[in-house]
Design a protein that fits this description.
By secondary structure, the protein is α/β, with parallel strands linked by helices. It contains eleven helices and six strands. Keywords: DNA-binding, Phosphoprotein, Transcription, Transcription regulation.
Length: 220
């Protein structure tokens, strides 16, 4: 079983997340917290695999709790839940080792998938969050920045560039596979190669490089 901690200051939100997650046979919500400080203390004292932290909480916000949890309970994988994707919040979440960034209006199955991915040691950014983050972070690239991005992308094959272009649009592996007539597993392999070649920690960083380089999907 994947043991989950849910931290949100709104009881109805916690109840809704609990209901969604416990509908999966392999997930159990073992603890809840009303603020970031309580979440950190709970993670320290309770056996937890994955923590879902809201950003806006009293006493201690979710991003500060993420950083604290990295020291107090380093084995816990943290997913950040939010209704927005502002630059500072996203960069802090990624910088402090967050395992994923989800918008609160994500589909129930997406939340379950994110928890499973985090528990397996994988980073997860939902397609909706990726699109939102990329649109927020990607300002018109300066000439030097664009040239640097194009230089890094020159290491990719034509097929890898096609996959990366779709990442830049925020598509999931399954949707990218459908567009390129490849299996989801094959796209996942390509994404792994792309991140390695570009020295990116996650698909959002790769998507930003694609935007900086002016890379667009074929026909886009």
């Amino acid at each position: 079983m994947i043991r989950v901690l849910v931290a949100d200051d709104e009881p109805l939100i916690r109840a809704g997340i609990r209901m969604i997650l416990t509908s999966a046979d392999d997930i159990d919500v073992v603890a809840e917290a009303r603020d970031g400080r309580e979440a950190v203390e709970t993670a320290r004292s309770t056996a937890v695999d994955v923590a879902l932290l809201d950003i806006q909480m009293p006493v201690m916000d979710g991003l500060t709790a993420l950083a604290e949890m990295g020291r107090a309970a380093p084995g816990v994988r943290v997913l950040i839940l939010t209704t927005f994707g502002e630059r500072e919040n996203v960069l802090r979440a990624l910088g402090h080792g967050g395992a994923g960034f989800l918008l609160k209006d994500s589909a129930p199955q997406e939340l379950i998938h994110a928890v499973r991915a985090a528990a397996a040691g994988n980073a997860y950014l939902s397609p909706a969050a990726t699109r939102h983050v990329v649109d927020t972070l990607a300002s018109p690239a300066a000439t030097a920045r664009g040239e640097e991005a194009r230089r890094r992308l020159s290491a990719l094959t034509e097929r890898e560039l096609q996959v990366l272009a779709l990442l830049g649009e925020g598509l999931s592996n399954a949707d990218a596979g459908a567009r390129l007539h490849m299996s989801e597993a094959t796209v996942k392999t390509y994404v792994s190669r792309i991140l390695t070649k570009l020295d990116c920690d996650n698909r959002v960083q790769a998507a930003l490089l694609a935007r900086d380089a002016g890379l667009e999907p074929a026909g886009g």
